[in-house]
Amino acid sequence: MKLPSFTKRQWLTLVVFGVADFCNAICVSLQAPFYPHEAESKGAKATEYGLVFGVFELVVFLVSPLYGQHLNRLGPKFLFNAGIFTVGTCAILFGLLDRVNEHYPFIALSFLIRIVEAMGNAAFLTASFAMIAKEFPDNVATTFASLETFFGLGLIVGPTVGGALYELGGYTTPFAIMGSILFLSAVMTAFVLPSHDQADEIAHQGTSSLLQVLRIPGVLLAAASIIVTSTSIGFLQATLEPHLRRTFNLSPVVLGVMFVVNGGTYALTAPCFGWLCDSKVRPKLVTIAGCVLIILGFSLVGPAPFLAFEPELSVVITGLVCHGLGIAAQLVASFTDALRTSIDYGFPNNLETYGLISGLWTSTFALGAFIGPSMAGILFDTVGFRHATMFVVALNALVMALVLLFVLFARRPRSFKEVSADEYLLGVSGSSDQPEFLQGVRPNGRAAAAAAPVLVAAAERPPGANGYIAASSYKNRHGMWRRRDSGTVVIGPYSASYGSLESRGFLETVA
Question: Which residues, 6+ apart, have CB-to-CB distance to 490 below 8 Å?
Fold first, then answer.
């Protein structure tokens, strides 16, 4: 596995993102071992403090698409830093709740702080995913997976660190220390992270929406994959502990180690799946492999009712390893697949699209993380753990079948040939140095008039990652999406959406 050749700026960005992801994940997860006990001492019931945890994912699901849609207007660096500062502040405030002695004020403040913290976390994640796509256009999957490793490690370390600091200094200590560390990382990112000042892209703000992205079948399947994957994670978080405790009579320390198995496997293998998606394998094939691994994992952890053997600890561990491999494959592949597919279908290759896909990923993951524990608790109480696991198996089997059918029968979108402004000018000027595919072609008066706005847009748009010119955007009236139903002919491999080759009366060839 060859390391990508990043620039100094890219390596620095990657390090800053890694530190921020790690600290942020610790802050949002460190209260798990001791907050329920503190809440019960104030008179709260399990339903109440369970919703304190659940409302976090619900808020992330609701606000992430809004952040993604308005990323250009807010600015990715501002959104990133504001999110970290918000999470750090809320972590410190959450550590002061032990001073609230009344039952209802304690629960109300817990909800309020957790909701604001979720808004900051959603901002942080949405901006970070978009900036990854912007800074690493050729290695999106690899860098995304690497940062997911840091975030996954933070989620694993968070409860351990929180429990240790709680034993050392009481309820306030873990929140005060980790919140302050996150503040310091926010200061570092404010000075180190590059800015993305793109006034040309802001002019197109609002031309794309999440609903338009979800109309693309490939993106919709990627979103479904994220939901079922995060559902499986939340399912085990809610029910694995009572299942193992009642079946094997394990100590709390061993139970904690069992939770590290799938999370650690995910953190260690995510970069490998990112590398595969970037260089070797279609992301949807990786998604299918992820579904198979999760189905296998849940069938062993139960074990499934159709398997004729009783639960064994070694089999459970094997199942958790398979689950960790499956969630790594699906989460990494889904982000890469959604981004590439949306661009292939005509969305501009710019920060606006990156923000939309980032918001989609964050929102759908949160939706699954909300559904998973909710359904797990109901099914665990009604049918038991072994039969309850079939819910996750069925969901993944359905997504796997749909993705497999899509891979076998869906038609891939037509590839675009990027034509620069200089090539176009050479082509319409009749110069002998014009590109080969434009030689002998000149527009008449109507073609020149129709092409004028396209020429302006192409001339003003910078090269590089923004190479998809304005005429290729989803809603542009000159674009392929609008012309597909108008009878416009596409000549050769060059799309009419670029304004370089017109048809039906718009071109005259030189005899």
Answer: 414, 480, 496, 503
